[in-house]
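so i finally got all the pieces together for this one. its two components total, 642 residues if u count the protein bits. some of the lines might not be protein, just check the labels. i wanna see the whole assembly predicted at once instead of chain by chain like last time, that was a mess tbh
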Amino acid sequence: MPPILEVRHLRKRYAGLMAVDDVSFSIPAGICFGLLGPNGAGKTTTLEVIEGIIQPTAGEILYKGRSRNSRFKDEIGIQFQHTALLAMLTVEEALNVFRALYQAPENLEYLVDQCQLGEFRHRRHENISGGQRQRFLLALALVNRPQLLFLDEPSTGLDPQARHNLWNIVKTIRAAGKTIILTTHYMEEAQQLCDTVAIMDHGRIIAQGAPEELIRTHCEGVTVVLPRGSIDHAQGALGLPVSVDGDTVRIQSANIDDCLRELMAWKVDLSEMTVQSPNLEHVFLNLTGRQLRE
Amino acid sequence: MHIKRIWVMFKARNFEFFRDKASFGWNFLFPFLLVAGFGILFGGREYVEYKIGVFPAPTGALTAADLEIPEGLRNTRFVQFVGFASRDEALIKLRHHKIDFVIQAGPAPHQYWISDSSHKGYLVEKIFQASLMPPQMQPAARKGQVPSAPIRYIDWLFPGILAMNMMFSALWGVGYVVVRYRKNGTLRRLKATPLTALEYLTAQMLSRLFLLMFTLAVVWFGCDLIFEFNVAGSLADIFLMFFLGSLSLAALGLVLAARGVSEEFTTGTLNFISWPMMFLSEVWFSLEGAPQWVKQMSQIFPLTQLLQGVRKITNDGATLAGVLPEIGLLVAMTIFFLAAGAYLFSWD
């Protein structure tokens, strides 16, 4: 069975800028695939080229093993990062307008229930909150029972509670067997939702794989964080790689047992110690030398 | 082409129009206010072509029968007599072209004044001189008379105001709205659906057509209740002409909406097209007497064809056969604009 989507050597050039530079990946059906990277990395452009919103400069895109045809639009759902809708409509009316554009629309009550739109379904869509709007846009992306769902920065601008709420909805959609491609610059979002992640920077994919696999490959051990004052007396003598970050020090260690043993041998106060496991943020940092949100 | 998709976009656009209370109200209020304004200014009063100042006389409008001026002049129609206490007061008004002719009341020999730069003064002088001629001195000429109903200015102007409102509503309601939707990303969202450009544009045009005809019917019958317009021809024919006119104007709006992403540029383009059309399509005044090339150029505007057709039916009682050239040109323009709009259209 061919992958549901295959992208080969995709390029998109704007005047003086290669926004997407030789990007290739393959997505099997039923997974959540994440494009992770900082703003300007080329994630949205890659997504919009695949969706058919903008034309590629070069490259090939295969949907179910074939070039995209007229049925492609019927089988995909898109949640845009920035979008506007037909004005003066209620949430329910807008959903019905979009449902009517497709051959086999999703049941309205299912959409309202799935995306938790009940309390504001009769309100004008211009008058709903940020979290409600993201759920509404997600419902719009689902109106045609898509097999392939594109989510462009779905939780950007949301407060933590609204973000976790949205993630739960996305997890439910994934559990229902839909294939999801999402872009994000939140490493936590990618780790929570994605089976496979492609990390993008300057239009290129610099690493790709399952989040745990990427962390295992590109990060070693753990990071021990201590107040700077607690190791002042031993800092020069410690046989550990120590980096100072303001009032805290970070010690990168491949073996937490050896690290703790040495700290205790030097009678370092460990009462305010925290131990951080590596995440995709560290992967990006190790690969590029920069933070994801710089 | 899916009728269901066109229908749903048609309904959505209509909701937007009817729910936007301010613009909805203004679409009805604006033509009504214009017609009402002109009705108050010109309605019910006798048509006046020339104003003649008379002194010494009580100031203000005078009754001709009470004036000691030549009888021929006193009995001339379409003339208003205005009284002044003194010659100086009357001559100041004459110098400022507020009146066209000044005569001193009293027995012959009569004294009169005209402004040397006033064409109206020249014509009143000719009328005055003719009025002094005894009947036996009148030149031999045979008079023929054509029976016709009087046409009030308001009867002539009313179709023009409705057509002008239709033009602005069609061009802005289609052209500007589509450009706004392109700029704010609505078209991009629709592009991601199976909706085709032709379906979208058809829905936009039909929606505007429906709204224009709805507005026309409300304003027409509302104004008719107040001003009792004289309509010589068939009301159904008039509405058919308006329908074809709004079709071509909305299609022209689609051409303007085909590409633009800047609302400012679109505003400029819309003004560039609508203002010449308003002045050269005889909305406010007749082009009779204008240079031939101006009259010929005005024929390229759909508004001109619309108004010519409507006025032929309204004022002259023409049938559809009598306005076939206008109908043909409006249909041809609509097809051309639609083809150009669909060819040039871009979602982005």
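DSSP finds ten helices and 14 strands in chain A.
Chain A touches chain B through 26 residues (CB under 8 Å).
anyway lmk what u think
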